[in-house]
């Protein structure tokens, strides 16, 4: 597996989990927590990550996701800040670091859009159109609807429309014990790649496992390791 592809998938999973966790706060004050995850490829560890949620002094909330892949010291440090009533994202920042690259993405909401920069330079000459659909709202729709739907998801400098097929409920074994989950399958423009996602209603729509396969062969398995509320 190429090092950058491995890191990109690991970090995408971390942010995907972050958005799904925030989805549970739409109707109630969120619980502050810390969680950890591990990624495996071909049965071997290939990365790990941590997630935390805390309330800021100004009443907003901050979600932080950190992760590191077991190649070339590739790492991610991401935060996103949001407010309640109604649930709305404000700004976010994603910093990717490694032996051979440094990438800093920063987004600021402006009138329902996000102005996004990469290493201090605008990604486009206009407001970044890909961010018109706020990720936490998108994940609320997915994590709580229990039905198939088409959603737009932004990752890095690109946004794509994905079809999420709801495949019913399933009990899976995790480090947190057996969990009843809602299962989805996500398509990809590259038809050889398929992601399967499991969300736990017990943890406010938390995604507790994700598997990605290519040409029918398992590529990466991302699983929850620990969860602690504060």
SSE layout:
Elements: H1 3-22, E1 33-41, E2 44-55, E3 61-69, E4 75-83, E5 88-97, E6 102-110, E7 113-118, E8 121-122, H2 135-145, E9 149-155, E10 158-174, E11 177-186, E12 193-200, E13 206-214, E14 217-229
Antiparallel strand pairs: 1-2, 1-14, 2-3, 3-4, 4-5, 5-6, 6-7, 7-8, 9-10, 10-11, 11-12, 12-13, 13-14
Helix pairs in contact: 1-2
Per DSSP, the total helix count is 2
Order of helices and strands: HEEEEEEEEHEEEEEE
| Quaternary | single chain
**Rg estimate, integer Å:** 17 Å
Low-confidence segments: none
Question: Which structural class do you get from the secondary structure elements?
Answer: mainly beta
Strand order of the largest sheet: 8-7-6-5-4-3-2-1-14-13-12-11-10-9
How is this structure best summarized?
13% of the residues lie in helices and 57% in strands. With 230 residues, the protein is mainly beta.
Q: Overview of this structure, please?
A:
By secondary structure, this protein is mostly beta strands. The chain has a single domain, classed as outer membrane lipoprotein receptor (LolB), chain A (Clam), CATH 2.50.20. It is built from two helices and 14 strands, in the order H-E-E-E-E-E-E-E-E-H-E-E-E-E-E-E. The protein has a 14-stranded antiparallel beta sheet, with helices on one face. A hairpin with a 5-residue loop joins strand 2 and strand 3. Helix 1 crosses helix 2.
Which structural traits does this protein have?
single chain, 13% helix, mainly beta, 14 strands, 230 residues
